[in-house]
Write a structure and sequence with these properties.
With 481 residues, the protein is of the alpha+beta class. The protein has helices at 6-15, 19-29, 87-100, 134-151, 215-218, 220-238, 258-266, 271-275, 336-342, 375-380, 431-436; strands spanning 36-52, 55-73, 76-82, 155-173, 178-195, 201-210, 241-242, 246-252, 296-299, 320-325, 328-329, 350-351, 360-361, 365-368, 384-396, 402-414, 417-423, 425-430, 438-441, 446-447, 453-456, 459-462, 464-467, 470-478.
């Protein structure tokens, strides 16, 4: 029927489910007094190819699909999922969900009113990344391998991979809402190992990606800088000295350094931690929590970015959310549940790894806005300190905000100039404290290359980070000297 919106038509044609079927399932989930219910349907196709030392090491392609039904009563959520997308399996899942979240009120009928079409289109693609022939992906990886070896004779080993994904999501809510989205995602990775002939070996990694056509990364102008950087870092670390330890001023480089902001601060601004009072930022809306000039934003509407989404996994349009403005806490990231319980509106941050998981308030693309300082002048202003150019892994305690991060590329700062590269550096501190110790903010905000993955409660989702050059005073640096 021409009057049926395209997303509903898709659900009917692919799974044999009519709008009335979804309405019946939602009504069943509400039958024992649930306040809200939704159906989440997902179909994800993913393929990957990995190459090592010029040979294809692995390749795979898989399709995962399933559906989950959720019912909410107060803070309680019932959730059941199945990989059989049939009306009968949905009815069984709805029965299980309503039993878990049983309330005391009578059920009610549901009528789907929305069209299902996203209000925004952040990643228009002519060709799905998973439709690109495998031969083209192998050709890309072979070119990466040859180019990396040509850059420096000390390159001893090269590993590269390309991952492509296409994800269809459909969300129907008991409030009559209906949303769908088709979400592409690509990622190209390269790891280089260099050795100096004296037995010392160092590895370095670079990657790039986003919700873009894979053709973007088939262009040498896009992937060669990634390889150049991986080779540079691996060779650089061959001559790196042990890092000194102590309390000192630290300059954070723009871009990927935003991972520290994401982990040490961003998680503490998610609604569930603040509703439960377990975050260091709980109950502090309107208070100064950072130095003047610090503005932190989570923006899921940036075209083509890894963390961007037309709609979140609860069918809510994503948006630009200012969390800290000029040092003052002004908001949290919310999914439907925590927004309702806190008496605020959802912010488009309800995210889940797959149909087998409940949504949680999660970040999308999280970054600090740039300031007015010249990045080079920021370095010149430091007499003795550390320049942290690249980060590895880290650990964070959400309740206290305390963190430990390893630094994969760092330099001493001596007399306002970058000195020798050092290795074994780590940064130790507290997220809320770090924000108050920001002294200068560069005018050079950069976002990462599109490789971020965030973990929370066993779920992983793609995210983006960003930061301008930043001077943080009196940060504890762990070292090996």
């Amino acid at each position: 029927m021409s009057d049926v919106p395209a997303p509903l038509r898709l659900v009917r044609e692919r799974y044999g489910l009519a709008p009335s079927d979804l309405e019946a399932v939602l009504g069943s989930a509400l039958a024992r007094g649930a306040e809200y219910a939704d159906v989440f349907l997902e179909r994800t196709t993913q393929d990957s190819v990995a190459l090592e030392d010029g040979l294809v090491k692995s390749g795979d392609r898989h399709v995962a699909q399933g559906v989950g039904v959720r019912a909410q009563v107060g803070e309680r959520q019932g959730y059941a999922h199945t990989n059989e997308v049939t009306l009968e399996s949905l009815r069984l899942a709805a029965g299980a969900a309503r039993t878990i979240a049983e309330g005391g009120a009578a059920g009610r009928s549901v009528a789907i009113r929305a069209s299902g079409r996203p209000e925004q289109d952040l990643y228009p693609l002519a060709t799905a990344p998973t439709d690109v022939p495998v031969a083209e992906k192998i050709e890309l990886l072979s070119a990466i391998d040859a180019y990396a070896r040509s850059r420096d004779p000390r390159v001893a080993q090269v590993m590269a991979s390309v991952v492509a994904q296409q994800r269809l999501v459909v969300v129907a809510g008991s409030d009559g809402s209906f949303a769908s989205d088709v979400q592409p995602l690509v990622r190209v990775n390269v790891q280089v190992i260099a050795e100096d002939g004296r037995g010392r070996r160092e590895a370095a990694y670079q990657g790039g990606g986003g919700r873009v056509e894979l053709a973007v990364f088939l262009d040498p102008a896009r992937w060669r800088p990634l390889v150049d950087e991986a080779v540079r870092l691996a060779v650089l670390n061959l001559s790196a000295l042990p890092c000194p330890a102590g309390t000192m001023d630290v300059v954070l480089a723009p871009g990927w350094s935003g991972v520290l902001l994401h982990e040490a601060v961003g998680h503490g601004l998610e609604g569930d931690f603040n509703r439960k009072g377990t975050s260091a930022f709980a109950g502090r809306i309107g208070e100064r929590v950072a130095a003047p000039g610090v503005t932190v934003v989570d923006d899921g509407t940036l075209p083509g970015r890894r963390g961007s989404l037309n709609v979140d996994d609860e069918g809510q349009p994503t948006r630009r959310n200012v969390l800290i403005e000029d040092g003052v806490l002004v908001g949290y990231l919310q999914d439907r549940l925590n927004a309702r319980l806190m008496g605020v509106a959802p912010t488009g941050n309800g995210r889940r790894e797959s149909y087998a998981h409940l949504p949680l308030p999660r970040m999308t693309n999280t970054f600090m806005l740039g300031g007015e300082d010249d990045p080079e002048e920021i370095v010149r202003s430091v007499d003795r300190g550390l320049y942290a150019a690249n980060f590895g892994g880290g650990q964070v305690d959400i309740t206290s905000g305390k963190f430990v991060f390893s630094v994969s590329e760092a330099y001493r700062i001596e007399g306002g100039r970058l000195g020798a590269p050092v290795k074994g550096a780590s940064l130790i501190g507290s997220g809320p404290e770090v924000l108050t110790r920001v002294r200068r903010i560069g005018a050079d905000l950069q976002l990462d290359q599109g490789v971020g993955t965030c973990g929370k409660e066993g779920q992983s989702v793609p995210v983006g980070v960003g930061l301008p050059t930043l001077l943080v005073a009196d940060l504890i640096v762990g070292g090996t000297e």
